[in-house]
Amino acid sequence: MEGMQAYGAGKAGGAFDPVTFIKQPQTILRIVSWLFSIVIFGCIANEGYINRPNEVEEYCIFNRNQNACNYGVFMGSMAFLCCMAFLALDVYFPRISSVKDRKKAVLADIGVSAFWSFMWFVGFCFLANQWQVTKREDNPLREGGDAARAAITFSFFSIFTWAGQSFLAFQRYKLGADSALFSQDYMDPSQDAAGAPYTSFSGDDLESPGGGGQANSDGAFDGTGGYQRQEY
């Protein structure tokens, strides 16, 4: 039973190995997505707002559309938090003993990752379109151009990193669903053994091979169990 896994993790209670955890494909993709979100958020928040030389108020670098910058900043910050949450879940996941809870966690991973992949696709299209129609006279000094292109580029890459996470989560789901050992009511054996009540041993539970241990024992000493004296 040591080699069996439930939804991509071994039985609960095992020691946490940081090296093995970091080398897992899902962990690598989460860290990469986490870094991409930081880059997108930082590029737009720091250099995504510019103004003309004769203006004081700053506008979004993407066609002066505030919604474009707001979308990028919101997506970057929320993706950052989501990556942190799922990394924490990955660390805790092997300690979950109930297969039902593991199934819920994997299904949540599939849905959330697919959702973020779609949202980054929308964000990439939105930012790329607004950057394409941006007027040169709105930014005569060409400020923030590299940051805008970086935000668009990493938005595009984020589509595939989140899609990869969803795919890996689906593989984990299939691994758990196809396993005949883990039924819906399966609990980890180590948890069952720990929670099982202790039954004390009693000598009264033993019986002689003849089935009447106590009766035979009494009859051996009271002299009335059929013993016949011999006359000499």
What does this structure look like?
Helix 2 (about 25-45) runs antiparallel to helix 3 (about 65-90) and helix 2 (about 25-45) runs antiparallel to helix 5. Helix content is about 60%, strand content about 0%. The longest helix is centred in the middle third of the chain and has 34 residues, at about 100-130. It is elongated. The protein has a domain at about 25-180. The protein has a two-stranded antiparallel ribbon. Residues about 180-185 and about 210-220 have low confidence and may be disordered. The chain has helices spanning about 20-25, 25-45, 65-90, 100-130, 145-175, 190-195, 215-220, and strands at about 50, 60. The protein is built from seven helices and two strands, in the order H-H-E-E-H-H-H-H-H. The chain has about 230 residues and is mainly alpha-helical.
Distance between the termini: 72 Å
Give, in order, the helices and strands.
HHEEHHHHH
Flag low-confidence runs.
180-186, 208-221
**Class per helix and strand makeup:** mainly alpha
Beta-strand residue percentage: under 5%
Number of strands: 2
| Biggest sheet character | 2 strands, antiparallel
Helix content: 55-70%
Number of helices: 7
Mean pLDDT: 79
